[in-house]
Amino acid sequence: MKTATAQTTASFRNILFATDFSSAAAHAVPYVKRIAKRYDADLVALHVRPPAVNPITEPGTWPSAESIRMKDEEYRDQLLDTFAGIRTTALVEEGDIQSRLDEAIQKNNTDLVVIGTRGRSGLGKVLMGSVAEEIFRTVPCPVLTVGPRSDSSRGADGEIREILYATDLASPSPAAAAYAVSLAQEFQARLILLHVIPEPQPGDLVSAHDVSQSAKNLLRKLVPEEAEAWCKPEFFVERGNPADQILRLAHLRVSDLIVLGVNPEEGVPGAATHLPIATAHKIVSHAECPVLTVRN
Length: 296
Description:
This protein has nine helices and ten strands. By secondary structure, the protein is of the alpha/beta class.
């Protein structure tokens, strides 16, 4: 397992905010503003709408080109007004959210994508629900997901005072750990590293104490020695359900940010995350602070 290095820097100079103008997306706006101002970043605010012309409906029901143009202009004006004072490019695109998002990320050299999610499941998932999961599993840059329970008053001054990095210790390249360390340096924040292990089972050959100590030693290797001067790392090994334990510790510590690692999508959808997709979704849905996912 490679050690995170102080040379890895979280530099969010080009931020993309994906919005469907829902209440969930609006909930993410304060975080977008804080990060953009903190890093003096360029912002792309992207809204992707479905095609205005539906071939399965009567042509007489199709909106006119002028009405489409006016509505798109209204969306752009709203985005520019929302982010007044920040260098903002407002994009209103037609088509599929994932493909349009990928194009915008590549064209604008995006360092960070910010999305809001309703955190619903099943048929209740819409753009900022299931699509949010698809985004943080597939896009190449880090994604900050703001869930419905995120307390936007926390960190209202733009500061991050504590970061919780949770890992299953299975990744050979802990890019997320490096981002957590870099952000801790940027904000002079406390850094909490957490690994959750299963409950002991009858017949286990290694004692629970030895498993915990081994896990703590692996967590310590994720933080370079020089980083201890600015982030005062603390290491926790808990037993139980990973999502429950991550949420519990973040709540008890009043953490301002949770950082998770995700692996590139491959094979069965939902099997790609460093932490299982059900775990990641639960954390995003119930966390009281934003969740930053970083692909390895």
